[in-house]
């Protein structure tokens, strides 16, 4: 099988870590019978300055018409508003209907407090439909925002969480893990928002009551106590599913549990299409120094492969990365090491 993969480095260290992602995909063993056909694509602030567009139509067209997946680096966003500029990743999620944002947060097994969870965030609705209004009243301005929750979006995100739980269970059959049983935790605030979050809760439970998820334990957790437990007992969690806003906050919070942004991958997933994207930004403070940690991107490449139905290839990348971290000899500066980006990549390629 040959997968056509778009490479979108973007800005800053995106240009250093996306080539690393390409190298790891090219280095996968031939026995997997998996080939890649890469296409370089533009997006980001530099693209905006050069072409007038942060997300050129050509990029979207090639992704939509030719590619099965993509790797997206990072983009710089100016701190002041620039006319005509808006974030390309938000637009891409919308234009390609990438309805799920998936963020695994994992330590190595020999960590003092090992954790291994995935946060599955609904990516298309909730307060992020950005339908806000402001009106003047005798008491001053009042601003309001629409929080939209639909049956369709809630159902498909919960089903995805269930599918991920099953897949993780399967992977555990052949590799050691801190979890013995798959668990999906549905997060909401339906005690206060009984209609919107209430609908998310009801439909999620319904989706996960499908007999194919019979082996998966289902629990629910109100979002504020979820934050408390996530920080006190992160090892308890396997798969967490949440509406857009809570998922955004939980996933950034969870990333803090593993030490460096340079370790945390994500994927934006739609029907038959996935974009792997490291969680970090363009890191202008370290760009051009060959010290960016490539691991978030390598894991994002693996995550993309999981959603393109290539779990074996993904598992090989995860194992090579874990072996590098467990040995702890060739680590980048964000992890307290002295290795360059290239040295980390080469160590991981050797293990692959
Ligand atoms: P950032 O994630 O770029 O950097 C935060 C800190 O983490 C910096 O000290 C940086 O050196 C370090 N860091 C990040 N990734 C690293 C890696 N792979 N290896 C080693 N150290 C790493 O966030 P910041 O500084 O808030 O934003 C910088 C630019 O990135 C801004 O223009 C911002 O808008 C953009 N950004 C883009 C994102 C995206 O494309 N998804 C996400 C977050 C920020
Ligand atoms: Mg965020």
TrEMBL record:
GO biological process: isocitrate metabolic process; lysine biosynthetic process; tricarboxylic acid cycle
Protein keywords: Amino-acid biosynthesis, Lysine biosynthesis, Magnesium, Metal-binding, NAD, Oxidoreductase, Phosphoprotein
Gene source species: Trichoderma gamsii
GO cellular component terms, A-Z: mitochondrion
Catalytic reactions on record: (2R,3S)-homoisocitrate + NAD(+) = 2-oxoadipate + CO2 + NADH
GO molecular function, one term: homoisocitrate dehydrogenase activity
Domain (Isopropylmalate dehydrogenase-like) ranges: 4-348
InterPro entries tied to this protein: IsoCit/isopropylmalate_DH_CS, IsoPropMal-DH-like_dom
Enzyme class name: oxidoreductase
Pathway: Amino-acid biosynthesis; L-lysine biosynthesis via AAA pathway; L-alpha-aminoadipate from 2-oxoglutarate: step 4/5
EC number: 1.1.1.87
Name by which UniProt lists this protein: homoisocitrate dehydrogenase
Cofactors: Mg(2+)
Coiled-coil ranges per UniProt: none
Family to which this protein belongs: Belongs to the isocitrate and isopropylmalate dehydrogenases family.
């Amino acid at each position: 099988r040959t997968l056509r993969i778009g490479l979108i480095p973007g800005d800053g260290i995106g240009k250093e870590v996306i080539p690393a992602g390409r190298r790891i995909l090219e280095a996968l063993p031939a026995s997997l019978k998996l080939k890649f056909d890469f296409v370089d694509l533009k997006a980001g602030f530099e693209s905006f300055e050069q072409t007038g567009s942060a997300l050129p139509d050509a990029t979207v067209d090639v992704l939509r018409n030719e590619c099965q997946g993509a790797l997206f680096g990072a983009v710089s966003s100016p701190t002041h508003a620039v006319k005509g500029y808006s974030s390309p990743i938000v637009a891409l999620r919308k234009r390609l209907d990438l309805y799920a944002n998936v963020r695994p947060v994992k330590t190595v097994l020999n960590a003092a407090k090992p954790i291994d969870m995935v946060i599955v965030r609904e990516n298309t609705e909730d307060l992020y439909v950005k339908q806000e209004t402001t009106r003047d009243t005798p008491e001053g301005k009042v601003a309001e925002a629409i929080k939209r929750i639909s049956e369709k979006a809630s159902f498909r995100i919960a089903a995805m969480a269930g599918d991920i739980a099953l897949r993780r269970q399967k992977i555990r059959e052949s590799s050691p893990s801190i979890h013995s049983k798959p668990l999906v935790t549905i997060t909401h605030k339906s005690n206060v928002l009984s209609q919107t979050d209430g609908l998310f809760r009801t439909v999620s439970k319904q989706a996960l009551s499908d007999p194919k998820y019979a082996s998966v334990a289902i629990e629910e957790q109100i979002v504020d106590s979820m934050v408390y437990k996530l920080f006190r007992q992160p090892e308890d969690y396997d798969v967490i599913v949440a509406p857009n806003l809570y998922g955004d906050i939980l996933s950034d919070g969870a990333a803090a549990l593993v030490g460096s942004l340079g370790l945390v991958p994500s994927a934006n997933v739609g029907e038959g299409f996935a974009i792997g994207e490291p969680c970090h930004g363009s890191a202008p403070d370290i760009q051009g120094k060959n010290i960016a940690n490539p691991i978030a991107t390598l894991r994002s490449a693996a995550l993309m492969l999981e959603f393109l139905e290539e779990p074996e290839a993904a598992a090989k990348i995860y194992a090579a990365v874990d072996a590098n971290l467990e040995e702890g000899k060739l680590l980048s500066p964000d992890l307290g090491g002295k290795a360059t980006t290239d040295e980390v990549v080469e160590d991981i390629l050797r293990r692959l």
